[in-house]
Amino acid sequence: MIGVFDSGLGGLSVLIEIKMLAPNADLLYVADRARAPYGNRSLDEVRSMSHEVATWLIQQGAETLVVACNTASAAALDSLRESCQEIPIIGMEPAVKPAAAASETGVIGVFATKATFQGRLFESVVSDHAGNAQVVTRACPEWVEMVERGEFAGPDVDSTITAALIPMIDEGADVLVLGCTHFSFLRPVIERIAGPGITVIDPAPAVAAQTIRVAGVIGGEGRVRLAASGDPSVFARLASDVGIVYSSGEVLPFPE
Ligand code: DGL
């Protein structure tokens, strides 16, 4: 069984990709919505929450763990790998490397959370992989909130995205990195507003492919189960909105 978690809806973008690559994988997803957003919290807080969620998933039988949250990866990937050495753990990192390779202007834009930009992971990804590219960053907590409200399109979504995106393009960015899993659900709007000359990179498919490589033989029955802290019925509605079909018919409570 593969355990996947995020603060909320965002990591489902990774789960969808895993499901596409390995339809028979058994998946258990935790949305820690009662404590979302993670991105405005301190890295210490996010680290301890990530350990709680990971421990619960392992207790439920997860044999591979996917930290489908850039913020939790920034805060906790190293310490999770240290304390749960018995299973492989896959995390997210902003796709600065492919972005720098694809950029013609030499300017790349990264959208993520405040906590992700504060972590050492982001610093090391930039110093190891940005090369000569200039990296322009923008924290977008309001994008996370829109997704958690189930708002993926409409005039308010357009204006919120325009306000963050246009200044980045004005600075010369021709490649934009989605450095928060929630933003995958806004990708169609981001691409439309950015226009045809701009490339948008979402690492979710690459992380899903890596998960399948690391998990090895997938011998499950294709069961998808969801768990959430906070009101499970709200998460059930949001998950259906993004097209998730889950086996048990209800969202399990994740103990806070
Ligand atoms: N989906 C998360 C990420 O990838 C975090 C969103 C949040 O809770 O702030 O960073």
Structure description:
This protein has 256 residues and is an alpha/beta fold. It folds into two domains: 2-92 and 205-253, Rossmann fold; 96-202, Rossmann fold, CATH 3.40.50.1860. 46% of the residues lie in helices and 17% in strands. The protein contains eleven helices and ten strands. It has helices at residues 12-21, 43-59, 70-83, 96-102, 114-118, 120-129, 141-148, 155-170, 187-194, 204-215, 232-241; strands at residues 2-6, 27-31, 64-67, 89-91, 107-112, 134-139, 175-178, 199-201, 224-228, 252-253. The strands form two sheets. Strands 4-3-1-2-9-10 form a six-stranded parallel beta sheet, with helices on both faces. It has a four-stranded parallel beta sheet with strand order 6-5-7-8, sandwiched between helices. α1 (12-21) packs across α10. D-glutamic acid binds at residues 6-8, 10, 36-39, 69-71, 113, 116, 144, 180-182.
What layout of secondary structure does this protein have?
Blueprint lengths: L1 E5 L5 H10 L5 E5 L11 H17 L4 E4 L2 H14 L5 E3 L4 H7 L4 E6 L1 H5 L1 H10 L4 E6 L1 H8 L6 H16 L4 E4 L8 H8 L4 E3 L2 H12 L8 E5 L3 H10 L10 E2 L3
Parallel strand pairs: 1-2, 1-3, 2-9, 3-4, 5-6, 5-7, 7-8, 9-10
Helix pairs in contact: 1-10, 2-3, 8-9
The chain binds D-glutamic acid (DGL).
The site of D-glutamic acid has 17 residues, from helix 3.
